[in-house]
């Protein structure tokens, strides 16, 4: 048989792995939405308020307002992640067992998150510790997951695959959120207190995260590492060696560094809006927990269409332009938020729909766009830098939000202060030379960049 007549089965093999890979977005979105996005912040504040003395709680010798506590916990988890994740990325780049690392971090995070069920009465410290560990593991698993994207897709497929993954995630997270919405809003008819309903909902999210992670763990293939640095010593020593080489060589990839700086700012804004929206809705606008859950459910549903439509737009005009449009919309969102009257449901729902449109799109395209700027063999390391500022682990935005609330005693100026992150991020993104970045990384340029 003529070798040229043999069918190329590589696209079919990639498609099978891509379908398996989507399931991790389905799995981890439950934690991102039900726990980090909706229930953890308000519940931690309520528990801490029970223990407060003079409207303050003490943590590591610091006197903190209970309302600022969730923002500070997110800040702490990101500072720790900034130190830990790059080393973990170097380890991941040197192993052929990425799917095992992915599952291990996911299951460790779910185990830590399960401890939130036991946060009752005034033991808010357990909530701080368990969420801190779970959030760090969430970021570590995301580093490995995003590096796998490069192994299972070509450059021309990235926007489509990444966008479908995000859409799949919003579908999964939204489905569980719908169930938890019912449990929290109908807790009386179910014979539950509201606190028990919230605790059960958070527990269901980490069980969902752990359970559905089994699918990519079983169906993904382990790929041999490519183009790793040759350094001597054991696995930890070699990983530090590769990380050091990568840090020294960052100057050779200025476009990737510029994008990381842009992403640091605009993603901090996005993550802070996501992480603090429930607190804003309940504590500032006066909505019940069930109403906020319902709004988050709306965001999840709209975000599915948003991710897919942004992915299609990127294939026509390029990811960078579409991301910039999304950042303009984010500026309008945080500006409109300060004018919503207390208890005004329709404007709050419209704001949620607007968030849904840009949320999935900007995040999915940021992931696929950055993958084009990453040199081969160092995907996990570069995504570890990326995820030091990623969803659920933003620190500058959360810190600013917490400080503005601390000094103003109002969430309205706190939410509006985030506009600066979208503006700075957008200005930095304008300076990113996509074509040069792809060349520097040694990747193939897709038809539209």
Give a topology summary:
Elements: H1 10-51, E1 57-59, E2 62-64, H2 69-93, H3 98-114, H4 124-152, H5 158-185, H6 194-212, H7 214-219, H8 235-249, H9 254-284, H10 289-317, H11 319-337, H12 345-371, H13 379-387, H14 396-408, H15 411-416, H16 419-430, H17 434-441
GO cellular component, one term: plasma membrane
Main location: membrane
Keywords: Membrane, Transmembrane, Transmembrane helix, Transport
Would you kindly provide a brief summary of this structure?
This protein is mostly helical and about 450 residues long.
What does this structure look like?
It contains 17 helices and two strands. By secondary structure, it is mainly α. It has one domain (16-441): MFS general substrate transporter like domains (Growth Hormone, Chain: A, Up-down Bundle). The longest helix has 42 residues, at 10-51.
Question: What attributes characterize this protein structure?
Answer:
449 residues; mainly alpha; Growth Hormone, Chain: A; two-stranded antiparallel ribbon; 17 helices; 75% helix
Order of SSEs: HEEHHHHHHHHHHHHHHHH
Outline type: globular
How many helical elements?
A: 17
Fraction in beta strands = under 5%
**By helix and strand content, what is the structural category?**
mainly alpha
* Corresponding CATH superfamily: MFS general substrate transporter like domains
The main pleated sheet reads as:
2 strands, antiparallel
What is the typical, i.e. mean, pLDDT?
85
Low-pLDDT regions: none
Number of strands: 2
CATH topology name, in short, is Growth Hormone, Chain: A
Q: Architecture in CATH?
A: Up-down Bundle
Membrane topology: Multi-pass membrane protein
GO cellular component, one term: plasma membrane
Pfam family, one: ATG22
Keywords: Membrane, Transmembrane, Transmembrane helix, Transport
